[in-house]
Amino acid sequence: DLIDPVDSVDVDFEWFELDRKHLKKTASDGTEIGIDVDEPLHDGDILAEVDETSYVVNLLPSELITVDISDIKEMGRVCFELGNRHLPISIDETSVTVPYDEATFSYLVQKGFHTKRITDILTDHLVVHAHHH
């Protein structure tokens, strides 16, 4: 017996909503979904399966700043400069990416970093929680 394929319905999320434990969303088919989770969500996670339909996290692109990194010293400098801003940050071997804001972008350019404004999906980011200094 062949199993009918499951329909996949997107539930759109902004990057900053992935860490929320409780929220309400509307799926692309108009279905209202209440979400109550213990761990952060990720792009592609299945939120619910109803009959033959899966409701899936669809992470939307957003405006980001990416800094190209040439060596470990530059990586340290960039991360040091961004550290006190308490921004979510995505780090890989050749770049650092944070959500876009004009002040941060201008600051990084002023500091001499190879900085670009892009539209992409912010994935695998670390979150720095604010604290008193």
Give structural attributes.
133 residues; alpha+beta; 3-stranded mixed β-sheet; 16% helix; disordered C terminus
- State mean pLDDT (0 to 100 scale): 88
Alpha carbon gyration radius: 18 Å
Order of helices and strands: EEEEEEHEEHE
User: How many β-strand runs?
Assistant: 9
| Overall SS class | alpha+beta
Uncertain spans: 128-133
Number of helices in the DSSP assignment: 2
First-residue to last-residue Cα separation: 63 Å
Proportion of residues in helical segments: 10-25%
The percentage of residues in β strands lies in 35-45%
Major β-sheet profile? 4 strands, antiparallel
Question: What's the arrangement of strands in the largest beta sheet?
Answer: 7-8-6-9
Shape: elongated
Protein architecture, described:
The chain has about 130 residues and is of the alpha+beta class. It has helices spanning about 70-85, 100-110; strands spanning about 5-15, 20-25, 30-35, 45-50, 55-60, 60-70, 90, 95-100, 115-120. The strands form three sheets. A four-stranded antiparallel β-sheet has the order 7-8-6-9, covered by helices on one side. It has a three-stranded mixed β-sheet with strand order 1-5-4, with no helix packed on it. β2 and β3 (about 30-35) form a beta hairpin. The radius of gyration is 18 Å and the shape is elongated. Mean pLDDT is about 90; it is low at about 130-133.
